[in-house]
Write a structure and sequence with these properties.
With about 325 residues, this protein is mainly alpha-helical. The chain contains 13 helices and two strands, in the order H-H-H-H-H-H-H-H-H-H-E-E-H-H-H. The structure holds benzoyl coenzyme A (BYC). Benzoyl coenzyme A (BYC) binds near residues 142, 219, 222, 225 and 235.
Length: about 325
């Protein structure tokens, strides 16, 4: 009898899908990058689109709290730096939307989902930037938290996303330093400036810890995303790294955290923070934070008021294409 025939009691041979899935997982386990056009499980593709588009939306929405301070920056120098930072964020959004397009989705559809409230963006941008010191706190704490996560994502398994993240991280580290520099100057200024810096840290501290996602035990996607190396570290580990990096910087500024339980655990060689208010996090990500409505309204208005720019760019591109085909046809249209 042919040895390939299935014997009673044997497991049935793997289907084509199972074989592909196994081969895919082996590529991931060997740390190979998955590239555009490679076979991938539909759920892997969907997870990438979800995570990367949420990140793109965060970069775009993240421009709004900072935009409000462009006209109120305390000097021309600070204004130029802030303007450059905001332009970088727009660029990050564009790289990331472009990455999602390699996965077969349309950027316009993703933006429709954001504007209709069907897609998430980072919780952190639903807090208001009330003073100039908030611009410092956003750069130092928010970009600081984002970098710790994004350095880990430079090794994500989808090649185009990993390469985009390398460039984003370089720019984010400039953002973090400019934020720290704003707070550094304020803490060395008048008493009122020092108080303003402390107040900003008090308000942004906990939201920055929350933005790294729920505890691993409550993370919906974490386990599968780690298996596929979409994520390389869990939310808790990234949060711990962020805390370890940030507390010494806080001390150097001469400021304090709004957390009486924050302490260094010498045995574990790490900082430990008090309890995070996960109810607040849930409220914010379900649309009930301080600025959710305001941010989406501003995003919709920006899209409408800038429609002429997109139309002009499309008309220009159309003209260039017509010129190119005329040249190919020896001048005949
Ligand atoms: N806010 O299963 P989990 C920046 C959602 S922008 C809102 O652990 P995951 C900057 C999560 O989506 C930096 N929602 O999720 C820009 C899920 O809900 P759904 C942004 C959040 O994906 C401008 C549910 O909670 N960085 O730096 O495994 C100016 C369960 O969570 C949040 C990125 O986006 C949140 N904070 O892990 C200045 C990096 N956290 O989708 C600065 C890329 C979780 O099932 N993203 N949720 O409805 C990631 O690395 C991961 O998506 C996360 C979350 C670590 C954030």
């Amino acid at each position: 009898m042919c040895s390939q025939l299935v014997q009673a009691g044997d497991a049935p041979p793997p289907s084509t899908d199972e074989r592909r899935l196994r081969a895919f997982q082996q590529r991931i386990d060997r740390d190979e990058k998955i590239e555009v056009g490679d076979w991938m499980p539909d759920q892997y593709r969907k997870s990438l689109v979800r995570q990367i588009s949420q990140h793109a939306h965060s970069e775009i929405i993240g421009m709004f709290p900072e935009r409000n301070w462009l006209t109120r920056a305390p000097s021309l120098h600070r204004k130029a730096i802030l303007l450059a930072k905001i332009q970088d964020e727009a660029g990050h959004g564009l790289y990331l939307y472009s990455v999602t397009e390699t996965l077969g989705v349309r950027r316009d559809d993703l933006i429709d989902d954001l504007h209709a409230g069907r897609a998430k963006y980072s919780s952190i941008f639903n807090y208001p930037a009330l003073t100039w010191a908030d611009i410092g706190a956003i750069g130092w704490l928010v970009d600081g938290a984002a970098i710790v996560n994004q350095i880990s994502l430079c090794k994500t398994s989808y090649g185009p996303a990993a390469r985009a993240m390398v460039r984003i991280c370089k720019e984010e580290s400039f953002h973090q330093r400019q934020g720290y520099d704003i707070l550094w100057q304020l803490t060395r200024g008048s008493e009122a400036q020092r108080d303003m810096a402390q107040d900003a840290v008090n308000r942004w501290w906990w939201p920055a810890l929350m933005m790294l996602g729920p505890r691993d035990s409550n993370s919906t996607h974490g386990e599968q995303s780690m298996k596929w190396k979409i994520k390389r570290h869990g939310n808790d580990e990234i949060r711990r790294k962020f805390l370890d990096q940030t507390v010494p910087q806080l001390e150097a500024l001469g400021l304090t955290a709004p957390d009486p339980e924050l302490r260094y655990d010498a045995k574990a060689e790490r900082y430990r923070c008090g309890a995070i208010d996960w109810d607040e996090f849930q409220r914010v990500i379900s649309g009930h934070g301080q600025c959710n409505k305001q941010r989406l309204k501003a995003a919709r208005q920006a899209r409408e008021s800038q429609a002429w720019v997109r139309e002009a760019a499309a008309a220009y591109e159309g003209k260039r294409n017509t010129g190119r085909s005329a040249r190919r046809n020896g001048g005949r249209l």
